[in-house]
Amino acid sequence: MQSMGLLKTLLTGKASALKPSIAEHQRLIRLSARIRRLIAKWEPILGIHVQEAHHQPLKTYWASANARTRKITFNSKLVDMSPAFLEVTVVHEMVHFLTKGHDQLFYTLMDRHVPQWRRLHARYAEPLTRNS
To answer: Is pLDDT above 90 for 56?
Structure first.
């Protein structure tokens, strides 16, 4: 009965304890909207369709794509990253639908569509593994 605890907290005026979780929830809603907008932007550019995209906590990756199901899982920690890095991450995963791993075609497509991707990737790759 977690909802009863929430109701009791609201009724007793202790809602200030809920602000961080509500604020975090709102940030994650904004992250979902940003991801959806970026996918919509890049689908016609790359000529692919993403069936489903969602976010959840991940320990060692910024995202993971399944080319067979056309689904992408993004790390919830992306909520704290720059818009440029989020876009690079979205494109990176979408390009995986066109390639077999990090092959030469992958690098060619990334360099063509997002020339600054290597700089951004190098800047943010280490903190995830170091802080996980």
So the answer is: yes
